[in-house]
Amino acid sequence: MLFKHILQRLFKATLTAMSKFNVVFVLGGPGAGKGTQCQKIVEEFGYVHLSAGDLLRAERAKEGELAEMIEGHIRNGTIVPVEVTCQLLRRAMQESCKNDFLIDGFPRNEENMSGWQKEMDDKADVKFVLFFDCPEEECVKRCIKRGLTSGRTDDNEGSTRKRIVTYNTSTTKIIDHYNSLGLVRKINAAQDADKVFMKVREVFSQR
User: Fold this and answer.
1) Which domain does 159 fall in, by range?
2) Any domain includes 169
């Protein structure tokens, strides 16, 4: 039975390697509810949720020079080099032996997008961008509340506002780019999580 199980995993991994990954980028400001909605999508539609931020935080916890570099960027609300993020995303997708992925919090700027296209265009198809549109003050309020239990060093008002500035100056350009291609699905994220997911469900059901 163990040998059969190993063969099945190898077969699935081979099939995955032969086909492109299906990717939905999940974008929105810090505190817009990306993680909460991704969890609901995973439960209902079977996607694998990859958070660029979570992957970077996990790598940071391993310690070493790379971990220190990631920690500095996270603490200061700046963006980790795209090569590092793409490497972590690609590794996670390959190890999952699955084919449908939600990638949240990436790409955050034009460099991220160019890096993704260079590193991943031959490995993944971006099906659409799920954009959670949420007012700035609501995002700040949610992050402060989350910081009471999350243990994240960036869940405070100062870091959150820095991240929002970065988002407004960089990530909105990415949304505009994919919108010009007809690939953006915009969701009003200011409502409670269940109401937001009703709209999310419509998007994925149509697909």
Assistant:
1) 26-206
2) yes
